[in-house]
What does this fold into?
Amino acid sequence: MAYCGLARLIGAVGNCSQILSRTCSTFVQDHPRLKNTYLEDVTLKSYVTRYVPAESNDAIHKDLEAFGETAAVDLPPLARQCEVEKPWLEQFDAYGQRVDRLHVSAAWGAMHGISATQGLVATAYENHGDYSRLYQACKLVLFASASGLYSCPLAMTDGAVKILQSCESSVSSQALSHLLSRSPVDFWTSGQWMTEKEGGSDVAAGTATVATGDGGVDSDCLLTGYKWFTSASDAHIALTLARSVDGHGVPISGNKGLSLYYVDVKQNFADGRIQAQRLKDKLGTRQLPTAELLLDECSAVKLSDTGRGIASISPMLTITRLHNAISSVSAMRRMLLLARDYSTRRRAFGCYIRDHPLHVQTLARMEVECRGCTVMVLEVARLLGLLEKGKATTQQEALLRILVPLAKLYTGKQAVAVVSEGLEAFGGLGYLEDTGLPTMLRDAQVLPIWEGTTNILSLDTLRAMASTQNKAFQAAIEFIQNTVEQHTSHQLGLSDPCSVLAAQCRSFSSTVAQLSPDTYSVAARDFAFSLSRLTIGALLIDHAAWTKSPADVEVAKRWCSRADIVPLTSLLPYCKAETALDMDIVFAGYSG
It folds into this structure.
């Protein structure tokens, strides 16, 4: 009886297979393929050719070409493994003993080794002349979008190096030897613990962690508090803010109570002085372990004078914001490389989709945005490299101060838009998890948030103006004007974009001059986007004049002719009457 039932089942399966073979298509869609991501990125490659001296150019090109192959072939499977095998927290062993073991995938460990051997932090601090930082930025553009989010601990590690180099502390020398190592065994990463439950961007009001027993710089102390959001929780060390106490043991309020501290993470975990409460369940960046940590008399070393905590982390913010912008450009470029290749493999309505003008037009608009963001980020890296080597002019230093927040806010916002548009280039496949494409969109969404949201960074551009007595803003305007004047009579057809950009810059400057103190903050976002796009327009014109590439000239033309290049065109949206109407619109019907 059982045998007969099994026979009928086998027969049914056989018939089904026959029907499927007769009625179903045998078509299988060819998947997109990444080629060498350095050689395929004409903007990145030409920027290196332009700014790296001839005597070093060949060696740098060869290294970037080799790493471009690694980024296209070797890294994507590891990145995918980091996404599939997510980190997890083991708080207790089988006998109830608190262990707080953070488990990560083998691929995460492999990314650590690659980061070390490739010198993804060390390169910026090695002797590569004035372009060490630019060289590092190029490698990170290739790495970030294929790193399984290992780019995040590298950003914080780079920032920690910047701070520790300027600290007179007993821990600096040993830490730096590890943070700058090219040995996978010796290489350390650093965390950055600034966010607490009440925190976010307002660290002065939100930091409740208390430091007891501290004295001056380099003194030992104990930290007690709750760190709400600690990315790269598996780091070897961390830099963190905490609140010093007065002579009566009372925490000192405001900025004047915040100081910067160095924490040996591994040792404190081993001693039970740090307890991992849970890992965050995030929209994206799931490859990256991000934890809530309880500090229970965690041993630390004081790095700054009391009340100098926020001032001390300023150099680190410059570095991490640059890394954020690099990751944004990297995400855009990878999506475009995939979408471009896929357009040569996918057929629809009788031809490859690369032969549909509307599809190519969409990709071209994404490409223009990506190239604009790329030249901005690479210019920030170049200027930072000059500053670090003591070669930056006063004007370049002022320009860098305002370009850092602009580059971070603008590229982060555009990365989400470009990557989202890129998913559409794959149709329904762009929505399927096993393509890896949705991961790119989820991960991109952190870029406008981490290291300051768009609004916070917009306000920081105003602080850059105030802290430099408006010199930062003037440096940006002069850069735009000088670039336009230099290339107005260019024979390659750049006169039209120069004229358009010059007119837009004059209009923008006139509107800014009419802003009153009470309207500046409301206009900050439109101000930041306007100045970002004007600066990018000048950079694209300048680069096209150097490359003499018809495609680069056309990119500059299209950028400068865009209708939204200057959102700040009128004072009306920022007056008190308009902001009152904003409140009416937003809270209409709200009953809370």
About this structure: DSSP finds 20 helices and twelve strands in the chain. The first helix runs from residue 2 to 23. The first strand starts at residue 88 and ends at 92. The radius of gyration is 26 Å.
